[in-house]
Amino acid sequence: MSPSTGTSLIPRINQKEVHETPPGTADYLFVVKPRIHQTYGTSYSVGISFSPKEEAEFLPTMEGILAIAIESERIKKAVTTIKRADPPWGEDEDSGKRIFRFKLKAEGLRDDGTTWTATPPGLFDSKGQELALDPTFNPGAGSLIKVFFCVRTYCVKNEAGISLRLRGIQILHYVPHSLAAQLGVKDESDGSSYVADMHHPDIVSKLSEREPKAEPFHGATDDDIPY
After folding, report:
1. How many other C-beta atoms can be found within 10 angstroms of the C-beta atom of residue 142?
2. What topology does CATH give the domain 4-183?
3. What is the pLDDT of residues 71-127, one digit of tens each?
Protein backbone atom coordinates (compact mmCIF):
# COMPACT_ATOMS: atom_id res chain seq x y z
CA MET A 1 0.00 0.00 0.00
CA SER A 2 2.53 2.58 -1.09
CA PRO A 3 1.64 6.12 -2.19
CA SER A 4 2.85 7.52 -5.47
CA THR A 5 4.52 10.85 -6.07
CA GLY A 6 4.19 12.85 -9.25
CA THR A 7 6.68 15.31 -10.74
CA SER A 8 5.18 18.06 -8.53
CA LEU A 9 6.24 16.07 -5.43
CA ILE A 10 2.67 16.14 -4.13
CA PRO A 11 2.04 12.87 -2.27
CA ARG A 12 -0.73 10.98 -4.00
CA ILE A 13 -2.75 7.83 -3.47
CA ASN A 14 -2.87 5.40 -6.39
CA GLN A 15 -6.66 5.12 -6.57
CA LYS A 16 -6.52 2.19 -9.01
CA GLU A 17 -4.34 -0.01 -6.81
CA VAL A 18 -6.20 -2.97 -5.29
CA HIS A 19 -5.50 -3.52 -1.60
CA GLU A 20 -6.28 -6.55 0.53
CA THR A 21 -7.36 -6.82 4.16
CA PRO A 22 -6.26 -9.54 6.55
CA PRO A 23 -8.88 -12.19 7.36
CA GLY A 24 -11.67 -10.81 9.50
CA THR A 25 -15.22 -11.42 10.66
CA ALA A 26 -18.05 -9.82 8.69
CA ASP A 27 -20.24 -7.55 10.77
CA TYR A 28 -22.60 -7.15 7.82
CA LEU A 29 -22.51 -8.21 4.17
CA PHE A 30 -24.49 -6.95 1.18
CA VAL A 31 -22.56 -8.44 -1.73
CA VAL A 32 -25.12 -10.57 -3.56
CA LYS A 33 -27.96 -8.05 -3.44
CA PRO A 34 -27.21 -4.36 -2.86
CA ARG A 35 -28.49 -2.57 0.20
CA ILE A 36 -31.10 0.13 -0.37
CA HIS A 37 -30.58 3.15 1.89
CA GLN A 38 -33.07 6.00 1.95
CA THR A 39 -30.36 8.64 2.21
CA TYR A 40 -27.29 7.14 0.50
CA GLY A 41 -28.99 5.19 -2.29
CA THR A 42 -28.30 1.63 -3.41
CA SER A 43 -24.90 0.08 -2.76
CA TYR A 44 -23.00 -3.12 -2.08
CA SER A 45 -21.37 -2.87 1.33
CA VAL A 46 -19.27 -4.80 3.82
CA GLY A 47 -18.38 -4.17 7.45
CA ILE A 48 -15.51 -6.19 8.90
CA SER A 49 -13.61 -6.42 12.19
CA PHE A 50 -10.29 -8.08 12.97
CA SER A 51 -8.56 -9.86 15.79
CA PRO A 52 -6.39 -7.57 17.96
CA LYS A 53 -3.24 -8.86 16.24
CA GLU A 54 -4.57 -8.33 12.70
CA GLU A 55 -6.00 -4.92 13.56
CA ALA A 56 -2.70 -3.80 15.11
CA GLU A 57 -1.04 -4.40 11.73
CA PHE A 58 -3.81 -3.14 9.43
CA LEU A 59 -4.95 0.03 11.23
CA PRO A 60 -1.59 1.90 11.10
CA THR A 61 -1.40 1.22 7.36
CA MET A 62 -4.84 2.72 6.81
CA GLU A 63 -4.09 5.67 9.08
CA GLY A 64 -0.96 6.31 7.01
CA ILE A 65 -2.94 6.27 3.77
CA LEU A 66 -5.50 8.65 5.24
CA ALA A 67 -2.76 11.06 6.36
CA ILE A 68 -1.24 11.09 2.86
CA ALA A 69 -4.65 11.72 1.29
CA ILE A 70 -5.34 14.66 3.60
CA GLU A 71 -1.94 16.22 2.97
CA SER A 72 -2.38 15.77 -0.79
CA GLU A 73 -5.71 17.59 -0.71
CA ARG A 74 -4.25 20.37 1.46
CA ILE A 75 -1.47 21.00 -1.04
CA LYS A 76 -3.86 20.92 -4.00
CA LYS A 77 -6.16 23.41 -2.30
CA ALA A 78 -3.16 25.63 -1.45
CA VAL A 79 -4.29 26.09 2.14
CA THR A 80 -2.34 25.94 5.39
CA THR A 81 -4.84 23.70 7.19
CA ILE A 82 -7.58 21.32 6.18
CA LYS A 83 -10.11 19.39 8.22
CA ARG A 84 -9.89 15.60 8.55
CA ALA A 85 -13.15 13.84 7.65
CA ASP A 86 -14.29 10.87 9.70
CA PRO A 87 -12.51 7.77 8.40
CA PRO A 88 -14.48 4.76 7.06
CA TRP A 89 -13.79 2.85 10.27
CA GLY A 90 -14.78 3.35 13.85
CA GLU A 91 -15.81 1.69 17.09
CA ASP A 92 -19.22 0.05 17.21
CA GLU A 93 -21.15 1.32 20.24
CA ASP A 94 -22.76 -2.04 20.99
CA SER A 95 -19.90 -4.48 20.48
CA GLY A 96 -16.93 -2.20 21.11
CA LYS A 97 -15.26 -3.62 17.98
CA ARG A 98 -13.64 -1.38 15.38
CA ILE A 99 -15.56 -1.87 12.12
CA PHE A 100 -13.97 -1.08 8.75
CA ARG A 101 -16.56 -0.14 6.12
CA PHE A 102 -16.31 -0.80 2.38
CA LYS A 103 -18.87 0.27 -0.21
CA LEU A 104 -19.60 0.18 -3.92
CA LYS A 105 -22.43 2.28 -5.33
CA ALA A 106 -24.70 -0.06 -7.29
CA GLU A 107 -26.43 2.40 -9.57
CA GLY A 108 -26.84 6.08 -10.33
CA LEU A 109 -27.80 8.73 -12.83
CA ARG A 110 -25.56 10.23 -15.50
CA ASP A 111 -25.63 13.92 -16.36
CA ASP A 112 -27.83 13.14 -19.37
CA GLY A 113 -30.46 11.47 -17.15
CA THR A 114 -29.67 7.87 -18.13
CA THR A 115 -29.06 5.21 -15.47
CA TRP A 116 -25.82 3.32 -14.98
CA THR A 117 -25.39 0.04 -13.11
CA ALA A 118 -22.15 -1.11 -11.48
CA THR A 119 -20.64 -4.56 -11.87
CA PRO A 120 -21.18 -6.37 -8.52
CA PRO A 121 -18.09 -7.08 -6.39
CA GLY A 122 -16.26 -10.30 -7.20
CA LEU A 123 -16.85 -13.28 -4.91
CA PHE A 124 -14.18 -15.95 -4.41
CA ASP A 125 -13.89 -19.12 -2.35
CA SER A 126 -11.03 -20.03 -0.01
CA LYS A 127 -9.07 -21.51 -2.94
CA GLY A 128 -9.28 -18.28 -4.90
CA GLN A 129 -11.81 -19.62 -7.40
CA GLU A 130 -14.58 -17.27 -8.53
CA LEU A 131 -17.91 -18.43 -7.17
CA ALA A 132 -20.76 -19.45 -9.46
CA LEU A 133 -23.76 -18.17 -7.55
CA ASP A 134 -27.02 -20.01 -7.01
CA PRO A 135 -30.28 -18.57 -5.61
CA THR A 136 -29.60 -19.86 -2.08
CA PHE A 137 -26.12 -18.33 -1.77
CA ASN A 138 -26.14 -15.26 0.50
CA PRO A 139 -23.19 -14.83 2.91
CA GLY A 140 -23.96 -12.96 6.09
CA ALA A 141 -22.62 -11.67 9.39
CA GLY A 142 -20.14 -14.01 11.05
CA SER A 143 -18.55 -15.14 7.77
CA LEU A 144 -14.74 -15.16 7.79
CA ILE A 145 -13.63 -13.06 4.82
CA LYS A 146 -10.90 -11.00 3.20
CA VAL A 147 -11.85 -7.79 1.39
CA PHE A 148 -10.26 -6.44 -1.78
CA PHE A 149 -10.66 -2.69 -2.25
CA CYS A 150 -9.39 0.55 -3.76
CA VAL A 151 -8.87 3.82 -1.88
CA ARG A 152 -10.64 6.93 -3.16
CA THR A 153 -9.79 10.41 -1.88
CA TYR A 154 -12.18 13.34 -1.65
CA CYS A 155 -12.42 16.89 -0.33
CA VAL A 156 -15.74 18.56 0.44
CA LYS A 157 -15.99 22.01 2.02
CA ASN A 158 -12.36 22.01 3.16
CA GLU A 159 -12.79 18.54 4.73
CA ALA A 160 -10.61 15.79 3.25
CA GLY A 161 -10.90 12.05 3.63
CA ILE A 162 -10.98 8.66 1.95
CA SER A 163 -13.55 6.04 1.06
CA LEU A 164 -12.85 2.33 0.62
CA ARG A 165 -14.21 1.16 -2.73
CA LEU A 166 -15.32 -2.48 -2.55
CA ARG A 167 -13.94 -4.63 -5.38
CA GLY A 168 -14.39 -8.19 -4.11
CA ILE A 169 -14.37 -10.54 -1.15
CA GLN A 170 -12.84 -13.95 -0.52
CA ILE A 171 -14.98 -16.17 1.68
CA LEU A 172 -12.83 -18.32 3.96
CA HIS A 173 -15.72 -19.59 6.07
CA TYR A 174 -19.30 -19.21 4.87
CA VAL A 175 -22.11 -18.26 7.25
CA PRO A 176 -25.52 -17.81 5.57
CA HIS A 177 -27.34 -14.51 5.94
CA SER A 178 -29.53 -14.38 9.04
CA LEU A 179 -31.94 -11.63 10.04
CA ALA A 180 -31.21 -12.40 13.70
CA ALA A 181 -27.47 -11.94 13.14
CA GLN A 182 -28.05 -8.73 11.17
CA LEU A 183 -30.15 -7.28 13.99
CA GLY A 184 -27.76 -8.50 16.67
CA VAL A 185 -30.22 -10.93 18.26
CA LYS A 186 -28.28 -13.26 20.55
CA ASP A 187 -28.96 -16.60 22.21
CA GLU A 188 -30.22 -15.88 25.73
CA SER A 189 -30.43 -19.50 26.86
CA ASP A 190 -31.27 -18.63 30.45
CA GLY A 191 -34.35 -16.73 29.32
CA SER A 192 -37.72 -17.98 28.10
CA SER A 193 -38.86 -19.11 24.67
CA TYR A 194 -42.23 -19.91 23.17
CA VAL A 195 -43.22 -23.52 22.51
CA ALA A 196 -46.73 -24.33 21.36
CA ASP A 197 -48.86 -26.29 23.83
CA MET A 198 -49.78 -29.31 21.73
CA HIS A 199 -52.40 -30.31 24.33
CA HIS A 200 -54.29 -27.03 24.15
CA PRO A 201 -57.94 -27.72 23.19
CA ASP A 202 -57.83 -25.37 20.19
CA ILE A 203 -54.70 -27.05 18.77
CA VAL A 204 -56.03 -30.57 19.48
CA SER A 205 -59.28 -29.65 17.73
CA LYS A 206 -57.45 -28.23 14.72
CA LEU A 207 -55.15 -31.25 14.39
CA SER A 208 -58.09 -33.67 14.62
CA GLU A 209 -59.98 -32.06 11.74
CA ARG A 210 -60.14 -34.32 8.73
CA GLU A 211 -59.01 -33.20 5.36
CA PRO A 212 -61.99 -32.46 3.08
CA LYS A 213 -62.70 -35.28 0.69
CA ALA A 214 -61.53 -34.45 -2.81
CA GLU A 215 -64.04 -34.51 -5.64
CA PRO A 216 -63.34 -36.94 -8.50
CA PHE A 217 -61.33 -35.35 -11.31
CA HIS A 218 -63.03 -35.59 -14.68
CA GLY A 219 -60.47 -33.64 -16.66
CA ALA A 220 -60.53 -30.08 -17.97
CA THR A 221 -61.73 -28.81 -21.32
CA ASP A 222 -60.95 -25.58 -23.13
CA ASP A 223 -64.19 -24.15 -21.75
CA ASP A 224 -62.89 -24.50 -18.17
CA ILE A 225 -59.85 -22.27 -18.82
CA PRO A 226 -60.66 -18.57 -18.18
CA TYR A 227 -57.91 -17.23 -20.50
Report:
1. 16
2. OB fold (Dihydrolipoamide Acetyltransferase, E2P) (2.40.50)
3. 999 998 899 999 999 999 999 998 899 999 999 999 988 888 899 999 999 999 999
